[in-house]
Design a protein that fits this description.
This protein has 413 residues and is mainly alpha-helical. The protein has a single domain (8-195, 202-401), classed as MFS general substrate transporter like domains (Growth Hormone, Chain: A), CATH 1.20.1250.20. The chain has helices at 8-12, 14-45, 48-73, 78-102, 108-136, 141-170, 173-191, 207-219, 221-237, 243-250, 255-274, 285-303, 309-336, 343-371, 374-395, 397-401. Helix 4 runs antiparallel to helix 5 (108-136). The chain is globular, with a radius of gyration of 20 Å.
C-alpha cells in the first residue's frame, strides 16, 4: 500500500497542476495576512475577544452569502467567477497594506477589510470547489483534496513562521505587501483553466435555487453528516483565537513563538497530507471522518493542559494531522454523493462550514476565554468535539454505514 500522497492529479492534469501551484503560493501570503491582522488587533486591544472578533467578521459574510455564490457558480462560467473574486481579494490586501503603512490605530478598518475579503471568498470558493471533480475526475478527488490540503497546510506552516520573522524585523506592513503581490500566482493558475460553463440542468440563480440546494443537503443524509462533522470540530474545537493569550501567559509572548503556535497545526497538516496514500483504500470514509475529528478534539484539549512549549507544539501537530485527514474524507464524501448540477451550491455549504464555522469557533473560544481562561476554553472545546463526533455517528447512521469507493476514470485534463 502506498503511504506517500497520490500525485496522479498533478502528473495527469496540467490545468490542475497550474492551479495547485498558483493558489499554493498565494496561500502563503494569505496566511501572513491572517497572522498580521490577529497580532495587530491584539497589540491594539490586548483582548482575546477582540481577536475572536476577526473570526466573526470572517464568518458572517460567508454564512450570509456563500449560498448565493453557490447558485451563481451553478449558473455561470466558474473560471470567470474565480478570476473576478481573486482580483478583488488582491485589492483588499493592498488596502490592508495601506492602513498599516499609514499607521492607523483603530481596529474597525481591519474588521471591515477582513469582511470584504471574506465576502469575495464566499463568491469564489463555491466555484472553486465545483471545478475540482470536473477537472480531475471524481475518482481522483481524494488525491486532489489531499494535495490541496498539502499546499494549504504548507502555507499555514510557512506563512505564520515567515510573518513572525518579518514582523520582528520590519513590521506588520511587510506581511500585507507580500500577500498583495502573491495573488499574481493565483490569477495565473485560474486564467489558464479551461472554460467551466454551467451544467445544462442547473436552475437560474435566486431563492428557488438556494432552497433546492438546501433541500438536497438536508435530504442527502451522508452529505449532511459529513458537513455536521466539520461543524462540530470547528465551532467547538477551534483554538487559534486563544494563541496570543496562551502565548503571553506561558511562552513569553514573542512574535516568533506565536508564529510557531500558529504553524504547528499546519505542520501536522503537511505530514497528514504527505502521508495520505492509504486514504484511497479506505471504504468506510464516514467512520474515518468522525474518528479523525475526535482525535483533533483530544489534541486541542490536551494542548490546553500543558504549559511547556514543545509538548504544546507536538500536540498541535498531531491535531493538525487529524484535521487534514478529516477534511480529505469530507471532501471525498461530498464529491461522491453530489451531482455536477448541485456542486456549486453544495460547495457553498461546504465552504460555509469549512471556512465560516472555524471563525465562529474562534469567536466562541475568545468568548469562553474571556469568561473563564484561555486554557479552560481549549480543554472544554476539545472535549466537546469528541462528544459531538460520537453523537453525529449515532444520529446519522448512514454516514457510518457508507462504503462508497469510486472507480471512475479521469474526466478532464
Amino acid at each position: 500500500m502506498r503511504i506517500l500522497a497520490d500525485l496522479r492529479p498533478l502528473r495527469e492534469v496540467p490545468a490542475y497542476r497550474r492551479l495547485w501551484l498558483g493558489t499554493g503560493l498565494s496561500s502563503v501570503g494569505s496566511q501572513m495576512t491572517s497572522f498580521a491582522v490577529a497580532l495587530q488587533i491584539y497589540r491594539q486591544t490586548h483582548s482575546s475577544l477582540a481577536v475572536g472578533g476577526v473570526g466573526l467578521a470572517t464568518a458572517l459574510p460567508i454564512i450570509a452569502l456563500s449560498l448565493v455564490g453557490g447558485t451563481v457558480a451553478d449558473a455561470a462560467d466558474r473560471r470567470r467567477i474565480m478570476l473576478a473574486a481573486t482580483l478583488g481579494q488582491a485589492v483588499v490586501s493592498a488596502l490592508l497594506a495601506a492602513q498599516a503603512i499609514a499607521g492607523l490605530t483603530t481596529v474597525w478598518p481591519l474588521y471591515a477589510l477582513v469582511a470584504a475579503a471574506s465576502l469575495l471568498g464566499a463568491l469564489s470558493a463555491p466555484a472553486s470547489r465545483a471545478v475540482l471533480p470536473r477537472l480531475v475526475g471524481t475518482e481522483r478527488v481524494p488525491a486532489a483534496a489531499a494535495l490541496n490540503m498539502l499546499t494549504m497546510h504548507t502555507a499555514v506552516t510557512a506563512g505564520p513562521t515567515l510573518a513572525g520573522i518579518l514582523t520582528a524585523a520590519y513590521g506588520l506592513k511587510v506581511c500585507y505587501l507580500v500577500d498583495a503581490a502573491s495573488f499574481a500566482a493565483a490569477l495565473y493558475g485560474i486564467a489558464r483553466l479551461p472554460a467551466m460553463p454551467r451544467a445544462e440542468t442547473t436552475a437560474r440563480p435566486g431563492a428557488a435555487a438556494i432552497l433546492a440546494g438546501l433541500r438536497f443537503v438536508l435530504h442527502r443524509r451522508i452529505v449532511l453528516g459529513a458537513l455536521l462533522a466539520d461543524v462540530n470540530a470547528t465551532v467547538l474545537g477551534f483554538p487559534f483565537a486563544l494563541f496570543p493569550a496562551i502565548n503571553a501567559a506561558h511562552f513569553g509572548g514573542g512574535a516568533t513563538t506565536l508564529g510557531l503556535l500558529n504553524a504547528a497545526p499546519a505542520v501536522g497538516g503537511v505530514l497528514g497530507s504527505a502521508l495520505s496514500g492509504p486514504v484511497r483504500h479506505v471504504s468506510r470514509r464516514g467512520v474515518a471522518l468522525l474518528a479523525a475529528g475526535a482525535v483533533w478534539g483530544v489534541g486541542v484539549a490536551c494542548f490546553g493542559l500543558v504549559t511547556n512549549l514543545w509538548p504544546a507544539l507536538v500536540l498541535l501537530v498531531l491535531a493538525g494531522a487529524a484535521d487534514v485527514t478529516a477534511v480529505v474524507f469530507r471532501t471525498a464524501i461530498v464529491a461522491a454523493h453530489t451531482p455536477d448540477s448541485f456542486r456549486g451550491r453544495v460547495g457553498a455549504a461546504e465552504y460555509a462550514v469549512g471556512t465560516g464555522c472555524p471563525q465562529l469557533g474562534n469567536f466562541r473560544a475568545g468568548a469562553v476565554a474571556t469568561l473563564t481562561s484561555p486554557a479552560l476554553a481549549a480543554v472544554t472545546g476539545g472535549l466537546a468535539t469528541v462528544v459531538g463526533a460520537a453523537a453525529i455517528g449515532l444520529a446519522i447512521p448512514a454516514l457510518v454505514r457508507d462504503r462508497y469507493q469510486t472507480r471512475e476514470p479521469v474526466t478532464a485534463a
